[in-house]
Amino acid sequence: MSGTVFSPASCAMLASVLFGIGAFGIVSRRNLIVVLVAIEIMLNAANLAFVSFARLHADGPGGGLGQAAALFIMALAAAEAAVGLAIVLAIYRSRGTATTDGVDVLRG
Amino acid sequence: MDWNGLAHIGPAIVLMLGGAVVAFLGMILRREEGHILPLASLTIVGISAAMLAAAWPGSAWIMPLDAGGAVTSPGMAGAVIRKAFPSDGLAAWASATVLFAAAISLLAAAGSRLHSDKPGEYHALVLLTAAGMLLLSRSGDLLTLLLSLELVSLSTYALCASHRPDPRSGESAMKYFIAGSLGTALLVFGMALFYGATGSLSLAARPLQESYRGLLACGSGLMLAGFLFKAGAAPFHQWVPDVYEGAPTPVTILMAAGIKAAAFAVLARVVVTTLPSSAGPWDSSWAAVLWTSSMLTILVGNAVALRQSSVKRMLAYSGIAHTGYLLIALVGTPGGAESPGRAVAGMLYYLFVYGAAAAGAFGVVSLIRRGGRELETFEDFAGLGRERPAIALCMALFMLSLTGFPPLAGFFAKFAIFRDALARGETALVVTGVLASVVSAAYYLRVIMCMYGSQRRSATHRQSGAAPAVCAGASRPGEISGAMGQTGSAGAATGSAPGAGSGSRPEGDAAASAVQMPLSPAPGGTGAAAGGGRTAGDHASGPDEALDRDAPECSWAAELAIIIPAAAVVVFGVFPGLLGDLISRM
Amino acid sequence: MGLGDLIFLIPMFPLAGFLLSGLAGGALGRRGVSLASCGLPVLSFLLAVGVVSRIAGSGATIEQDLGRWISAGLLEARFVLRADRLSAAMLLVVAGVGTLIHIYSTGYMRHDRGYARYFAFLNLFLGSMLLLVMAGDLLLMFAGWEMVGLCSYLLIGFWYEKDANARAGMKAFVFNRIGDLGFLVGIFLTYYAFGTFDSARIREIACTGGVTDPVTGLFRAVPADLSLVPLICLCLFVGATGKSAQIPLFVWLPDAMAGPTPVSALIHAATMVTAGIYMMARLSFLYAMTPEVMAVVATVGAATALLGAIAALTQTDIKKALACSTISQLGYMVLGCGAGAFSASIFHLVTHSFFKAALFLCAGLAIHALGGMQDMPGMGGLRRRMPWTYGAAAISALALAGIPPLSGFFSKDAILVGTLGRVMSDGPSPGDPGGFLAILYAGLYIAGTACEALTAFYAVRWVALVFLGEDRSAPATGMEAGGAVAVSVGAGASVARGSYEHGEGAGKEPATMLAPAVALAFLAAIGSTLAMIPAGGGLTGFLAGAVAGPVGGAAEPSAGANYFAAAASAAMACLGALAAWFVYIRRGHVPASVPAGGLRAVSFRLFHFDAVYDAAGAAVLRLARGLCLAVDRILLDGLLVREAFGGGARRLGEILRRTQTGTVNAYAALMVFGAILILVCLVLAPGGGP
């Protein structure tokens, strides 16, 4: 399997790139919805890393663990998205906008 | 069914089931029966605590974890639970602190007039958070660790947002959510790399091949970042002041006292069990990371706390500073064979002591109201020593304990951590910590001086002494000694002048002002103007208002939420032996 | 259960009395308090007699180990009480004289409001001194030493309502503390040098270079730093100058008369000032190793003897004159220690405690009879009204004067002979080519002998002014009395009156007060026999093994020197006594209450030591205050706290506060940056990298 484009190592590299994109998104984007998407990208990057490493360890005793973890993280990402959207909604209701701009009463 | 294994997580299960019951109760109870919810929640916490005490681990202090993979024999549910949730002294003491924090938080919520429109959900979320913290503190497996951490995080995001009328509540929830999700993402990705290197999710896993060590180091590093975020250590600390200040104060109590304990428990477990396994050549760099973080945290927390005008925000920064002191206990711990137990025992004592003092101090902020608002600025505390002597005494005890003043518990906690760190050779950290503690006295004692040193201006128009300057001169906290020495300085008069001009705000009836916020929601208003307006408004309207009297049905809870931590701070300082094996291990 | 197991009771009896009177004084009533607080010291005295007879018979040391007292690491101090010949002799004196003074006090303090408190303190005083005497190691001795100091403070300031009394108590305490510091440093140095606090073991190590196991008889060498011995001896001597009122720390003693007169008697005779002499005798084997320190000690002693005697010449307060005399006599004892005649010093300590206690008790009787008057020019003629008191006082004063064959003559003579012995033996030696020490001791001997004349003069003067001549008291109290009367009467009478103004009236001599005085005078008269009986050379012989003998193995002075010294001192004493007789009895001279000026004033004011201390103390305090102020205000508060520390922290806080922008994206950026930093740190670590 190694040597092909879809080797676990290259999948892990892809996951890292995705993770970096997500992190950049959180840092740079002001729109709360986009920030939520960036968070999802990061979690999915982790998922990708988990399943690719599960493939790597497929023959070992912990081979199934990576896939199980990916499943749990999917559920977790869904829960995060739900709570996150609710919070964004609350912000939008009280301020009429859904950006991080100007949400800085608490500071200093 | 293997009940022995179930006993490990029994307290958490009780809390979860109780959370469901409370949520259901919240749906069926009428509004005037709302006081049942706090009682029910406290009962559930009590049952959980009783189960924790019944299953108190005997001898194991930090249970060694086996590095093997999954449990293969399917019928051994108890064995699985025991493996995933080891029961040892570390977990038990952290759990005790968590339950203490939850109880104080519930009392504070009952005592404050924080009535969210869905009280059942609020109490259920508190219980779920507590359950998550219990599980977090005894997670021996990365998957359970992640899930319990998320249980805590998601519940807390919602709790932060639970005070709808206050826009700051929503803002704090949003900030906590975004920063927290980033932290979670770091943790999860780190776990993935860790899994890649070890093929296991056990905390004690070893790299499969020598060439995986780099991968393991990256994974552990990202995980460490995630944990440092939860603990509120620099440079992952910036959410702490905003969230602590914006969240409803009972939730702040839960975060400051409970989540910190759980986060440090899991951090200690990682440092003691995981890091050495990935150690090898990276051993010293782990220590360097923790060392740097500890140093930065102490400096940032104390320095910025000096510059605060809001007591609640000052307490938040002080929480950061104490995170720094706590990190000292973990620096270099993997290095010594004997030291982990001692260092971790000192850390747990510190967590409990800090939790009690912080919970009590936030409780005072939350429960004593002036004109329907929480006591916010230093000036709001002026004259409290005369108006509410018992409460002021408790607040003074909290401040002195946080400073580290003997014979209060805070002193012995700091002493234990510093002494142990000195024994490990961390001289620079200890010197910084001690000096920072001295500096911290400036902002802690400022609260005491405001409470006792000055009177409300309404009562003291004639005497403008130096003491009001202590409170009014919020921007110059470093000059307290100067203000003490120079009675009647010019700064006193100018500093406290604005309050005199403004007319006294008519006091609404207690119920109405309870929900009334100092700042109207101001949709679309610019943040800068809003922030400035808040501060100015506080200074202008605060001084002439009398303290609100507590509503009769809540006052017992409010006072308990203050007196119990105060008693803990005194008793566990004077009789530390009451903490039994924890002290003997320090 | 032999006597050896009971010696702990000797100090415990008075300490029990302290608890009894102190805690249950009200319940016991005056009679009960008197019974308990006099009866318990009597028991101590009887036990002491038993101990002495045992020791005199067998010569063995009685030791009792009451268990561990302090344990800290390698340091261990055991609570050991020990009675050897030296402490046995002291026990007899302390318990005996102390008991007599207790009995006297029941009369003197009869009407005082603080009766139970007084006796509680008195018992504590006695018990502390007994503890000090019996202490087997230096730490326990220090405990007793401090307790004695505390009791002196409590009793000197007993009538604390009067400001001057409280201040006198404070003064005694403070000056004693200065000496205590020296003592404490000496103790620590001793421990450093010898590795033990136990005085017997220190002696063994110092003399033999090791310890011999008492059971197996095996000798084990113990390395000891003997080069420290001179420093140790000096430090210990500083302690002795405080407790035993030597130059320069003597100034507290004249003021200590502010307490009730029996307390003065106790302090001067039995319990307090003898502690320093006893301590030096106890450690005499250390002093014997350092001739240079001995010379210092002897010089200080002789100077103090002269100073005290000169000061006593002009005192007009009945108690202050005796206090100056005590300073002088203590100087003699220290001179004896410095000359290596430790047993002679102890001998003088014993006789001195007899006649000085008797004199103070007589003074108390006189004050009592005159309604609180203490000014001698206002007294006179008490001989007719108080014949028994007069007799006791006269005998004691002559003993003090050193008129043979009374006890004072023999004990002082022993000291002077010892000093003369040093002159004879300290010829030019390798360490002292010029024979400097011999010349020094010759000078000291001459000073001591000259001092005899002064002693006799002031002793006779004291008797003459108080008991002989015309009765000047009746009209004098109000009118003639000058400033000193006002002062002394003011100090003593107003408070003292409370204690006896309801008494039997002037002229009566209550039996409870008279009997102890007469008994002590009797002892003062026959005390000389201590030099002759027990056959083995008197008290000196009794003590021979317990204290160091003459330094450098010097032979006893020849018979000729002995006779010369005795004749010289007797002649000097008679000369002084005759002179005083001529001035104060024959001519009937009565001094003014306060000398007008000149040399008399210098003597009257004790060479202005107090004024110098006041000025120096004030100057030092001013200097320290200025220094502290400068350091605190400018350095600590100004530079360090406000600028460097506080200012730095504040500026840092302001900068960091601005980084908290309130925008969550910025927080996330910092977090990502931190995570990258951690990864970089780990990857760049030595040997790291994927």
Q: Strand fraction band of chain B? A: under 5%
**Could you name the ranges of chain B where pLDDT drops below 50 across 5 or more consecutive residues?**
68-74, 458-470, 472-544
Residue share in helix of chain B: 55-70%
Overall 3D form of chain B: globular
How does the major sheet of chain B shape up?
2 strands, antiparallel
Distance between the termini of chain A: 54 Å
What is the structure about, briefly put?
With 108 residues, chain A is mainly alpha-helical. Chain A is built from 3 helices and no strands. Chain A has one domain: Helix Hairpins.
Structure in words:
The complex is a heterotrimer of chains A (108), B (586) and C (690). Chain A has one domain (8-95): Helix Hairpins. Helices cover 73% and strands 0% of the residues of chain A. Chain A has helices at 8-28, 32-56, 63-95. In chain A, α1 runs antiparallel to α2 and α2 runs antiparallel to α3 (63-95). The termini of chain A are far apart. With 586 residues, chain B is mostly helical. Chain B has one domain. Chain B contains 25 helices and two strands. Chain B has helices spanning 3-28, 36-54, 77-84, 89-111, 119-137, 142-160, 167-198, 213-231, 239-246, 249-277, 283-305, 311-330, 339-367, 384-387, 389-403, 409-424, 427-453, 467-472, 480-485, 490-495, 497-501, 510-515, 527-541, 552-574, 581-585, and strands at 369-370, 373-374. The radius of gyration of chain B is 24 Å and the shape is globular. Chain C is mainly alpha-helical. Chain C has one domain. In chain C, α2 packs parallel to α14, α5 packs antiparallel against α7 and α10 (274-282) runs antiparallel to α14. Chain C is globular. The model of chain C is unreliable at 476-506 (pLDDT under 50). Classes of the chains: A mainly alpha (108), B mainly alpha (586), C mainly alpha (690). Chains in contact: A-B, A-C, B-C. Chains A and B meet through α1, α2 and α3 of A and α6, α7, α9 and α23 of B.
